[in-house]
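hey all, quick one before standup. I had two proteins in the batch that finished overnight and I want to keep them in one place so we stop losing track of which output belongs to which input. First protein below, input sequence then structure tokens straight from the run.
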Amino acid sequence: SALVGLGSDGSGKIDDVELESKSRELVDVEAASSLPEYNFRCQTAKIMLECASLLENDSSDANSTINQCAESAIQVLGSLIAQNDEVIEVWYLLGCAFM
């Protein structure tokens, strides 16, 4: 039964940790498949970085908004890197987000 994944200790019980990790993996796959397309997310990150830059140049009391725009861009760019880490533009934008 261990060969087909029905149990790991021979007693027919599935290890709780193993079951939980498999369920998390399924949730992650479902969440990733429900994301917008790659190019849309890349353009969205660019817009968020541009907003952070414009707010920074405005020099008003909008520090929390600047941080929120930059953090959101970093999250989106992180999801893009997780999907495909060979796109140089995404790495460049991520570097810009930390400047």
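OK second protein, same deal, sequence then tokens:
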Amino acid sequence: SAESPPRLEPLSALPDPSLLVAAASEVDTGSLTTYLLEQLIASGVPALFWVIVIGFAGKTIASAAREDREERLGGAGGAVQELYDDLYTDGNVNKRSPFGPGGFGPPGAN
């Protein structure tokens, strides 16, 4: 069964715009504003509370994870950090090489 298209009403069936303006002017904006503020407070305070709780929990978990990672790696100046520094940083700037100024070979050869 085919559905018939919706029936369109003539423009004369629309409400009179002057009635809408009159109805809008009779709205008590003071009570509407009070209701809006009540609803904002009723939903905003719990939402703000949960944002603060979740933020604090996230910060606490991140801090604990960082401390755990440092403990597992031997702390800031631990053996793992020292090995990493030896392998990947240029720590020979302030140290004299036992093989001479050029690196390998007898002193003065390079």
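Flagging for whoever picks this up: Residues 77 and 100 are 28 Å apart (CA to CA). The chain has a mean pLDDT of 76.
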